[in-house]
Specification:
2 domains; single chain; alpha+beta; 14 strands; eight-stranded antiparallel beta sheet; Beta-lactamase; 380 residues
Length: 380
């Protein structure tokens, strides 16, 4: 695992100057103001449009830090605002590490694509072929759950199994800590199918967690090894990881609750496929470009519709839809107890964006605005 070294004193000095100089002010309805530092150079139309959207995002008093990466016709732009921890006056940068939560699932989809190409797994197989033990409950009127149903959220597997929060050691601030395979399989045994799988979309973390265990067993390797070998190393995504204990605190965007108080990073390491990765905008723009260019057969396969249509459907853990102008969109988002992420790719325009935040501030408008901005600025 690559260890990222701390910044030099010179870099930190320049960073502190940048923080002091590049300050934008956000006004609230109450008339109060707070200074929001940023590194947006405001040199281009794109810079100005992104800055306006970022200012509006910080109208939400819960907002702490924000990092944006934009790919425009293959050219990369980075914008950072706020703080890595409320009150620390440290501006995030494009190598600051954020939790990306369920955006991890888009990586899982690519690993599934590789497993299909390697003939380790077949998309239409009954998932029970890959499970030890007897699961008569995992079918509805004789129709089994298939691998494709796990990856496109039509499996009917419960979003979260009750035994997660019924555990004696359950911690609401870190709900998946120590939630392991054994507990996952116990929850799987206890659930009941209510509808035929493959017919109705219903988002399920447990389904993707299960898919991750199937992939690990198929290769005899851990999830992070599979992601590293197939995605991170080829793309030189050196910031992306699960274990961040080796990193200095200054490298991390600490998650915050609704009162802007620091809360624990979520530990999803025992069932990582559903949301364990942490990453930076520097890495995620590489991921955007790789998906736009479909640089590997596994990536290409992950974009193939498995449910719905090209206008509104699912690939292998990718949400697929189209813009009002008809451009294809590949996207995923994520959230933890104090972080949010959004990723959108526009392959026909060789464009896209990633939003990483370390708070519970609402980013929905920012997502919509950036999508409009990036499409408009990339098609001109």
């Amino acid at each position: 695992m690559t260890v990222i070294m701390t910044k030099s004193k010179t870099t930190l000095f320049l960073h502190s100057i940048l923080y002091a100089v590049l300050v934008l002010t956000v006004s609230f309805c109450s008339g109060q103001q707070r200074a929001i530092p940023g590194d947006n150079p405001l040199l281009t139309r794109l810079d100005s449009l992104v800055d306006e959207s970022a200012r509006r995002y910080f109208h939400d008093k819960k907002a702490v830090g924000l990092s944006i990466g934009v790919v425009q016709k293959g050219t990369v732009h980075f914008y950072n605002y706020g703080e890595t921890k409320a009150g620390n006056k440290q501006l995030p940068d494009n190598h600051t590490i954020y939790e990306i939560g369920s955006t991890t699932k888009s990586f899982t989809g690519i690993i599934l694509g590789q497993a299909i190409l390697d003939k380790k797994i077949r998309l239409d197989d009954d998932i029970r072929l890959y499970l030890k033990g007897d699961y008569p409950n995992l079918s509805y009127k004789g129709i089994p759950i298939r691998i494709r149903d796990l990856t496109n959220h039509t499996s009917r597997i419960t979003r979260i199994f009750p035994n997660m929060w019924q555990r004696p050691d359950y911690d609401s601030l870190d709900p998946l800590h120590n939630y392991n395979r054994q507990l996952l399989y116990e929850g799987l045994h206890q659930m009941k199918m209510d509808k035929q799988p493959g017919k109705v979309y219903s988002y399920s973390n447990m389904a993707v967690a299960l898919l991750g265990t199937i992939l690990e067993d198929a290769y005899g390797q851990g999830y992070f090894t599979l992601v590293s070998d197939n995605i991170l190393t080829p793309l030189q995504m050196k910031d992306t990881r699960i274990d961040i204990r080796s990193l200095p605190a200054s490298r991390i965007a600490w998650p915050h609750d609704e009162q802007r108080k620091v809360v624990p990073l979520w530990d999803v390491s025992l069932l990582p496929a559903m949301g364990a990765l942490r990453s930076s905008t520097a890495d995620m723009v590489k991921f955007i470009s790789a998906n736009n260019k479909e640089i590997s057969p596994a990536i290409t396969l992950s974009h193939r519709v498995t449910f719905g249509t090209e206008k509104e459907g699912m690939g292998l853990n990718w949400f697929i839809h189209s813009t009002p102008e008809g451009y294809k969109v590949l996207e995923h988002s994520g959230g933890t107890g104090g972080s949010r992420s959004s990723l959108e790719c526009f392959p026909q325009l060789n464009a896209g964006f990633v939003i990483l935040t370390n708070s519970l501030a609402n980013r929905n408008n920012l997502e919509d605005e950036l999508a409009e901005i990036v499409v408009a600025q990339s098609k001109d």
